[in-house]
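haha ok so turns out i had the wrong file open the whole time. this is the CORRECT one, sorry everyone. sequence first:
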Amino acid sequence: MPSSSRPASATPPRGNSRPFGIYVHWPFCQAKCPYCDFNSHVRPQVDQARHAAALVRELETMAARMPGETVTSIFFGGGTPSLMQGATVDALLNAIARLWPVATDAEITLEANPTSVEADRFRAYRNAGVNRVSLGVQALDDLSLKALGRLHSADEALRAVTLARETFPRVSFDLIYARPQQTVDAWDAELTRALAFGPDHLSLYQLTIEEGTPFAALHAAGRLSVPDEDTGAALYESTQALCEAAGLPAYEVSNHARPGEESRHNLVYWQGDAYVGVGPGAHGRLLTPSGWQATSTLTDPAAWLQAVEPGGHGLAVDEHVDNRDRAVEMLLMGLRLREGIELSRLSAPFGDLVDNQAVEKCIANDLLVMHGDKLRVTKAGRPVLNALLREILL
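then structure:
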């Protein structure tokens, strides 16, 4: 099926009142980065045909539980999905189009590492129907890239960005800041260089030390230091100022975009909509006749395969989400967005979820603002969002 006709479906869309996403997890990488706690595995050889067939099996099982929904976004995450063959991506997109109606303007994103970028492979993804790529650049400084365990150079990363922009209608790339010994001046220069490429979307993450990673062990041993709290705050403020000036305001805590270029798939998560997750370690939120279900699959690729091939799925968790837990989850995600959250969408009364006095205090201190039914975090509250949430939630 040519890219101009994908996504398409012979079945008329049912007309979702809300977006609906599909997440496909490809867990394989060329190397494991020392800061990464995602479900990723280094394998010298991967039987792509076998994994594609298993992913299709799991998609079929999920389609039986969420029939008729119109798919508005598809996201290939990892791991390193750009290690997938074009034929693998094509098979999965064909399966999704067979199993669900797919919106003609659906956003179809694939994550890519600069080291696995090839012009032929990019063309194959585009021909399969991918219309947005997200590049894991992470840094534009070779010493930092080496320290982060990345296999590409800054020049390779920027060549990948250029190639992506020549191939796909929409391109995003990631950078990590608050890296060891990083100064505000150095980050300003690096971000300015990135913005000079005229990106429409940037994901800019502060480095966090995640439990169980090599970075966590080094940090605990005193062999890895990250910028202190004041420097971290200065880096954050500088990030906001530079991106605002370049026309890419933060629409979410760590994500910046020109108006209209926001990641529609990630908005499915943040706005509390339904999505299916398939592949090792994938999560999902299904809206069923009996209510919301939280799903997650086995993380080990071999165990996942052994479950899916005979049984049709690799689910490790498939549990009902009660109204209060669902409301708290929506509140936690929705307040990450610049636009905030409509409280009428919560499945439990707002006053039952929060300490009302703490909320009033945050409003008085210009950390939260309430406009009618909508609650949002202010510019001053965004850098301390996690602490703010701990303060107001019961």
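Residues 233 and 311 are 49 Å apart (CA to CA).
again sry for the mixup
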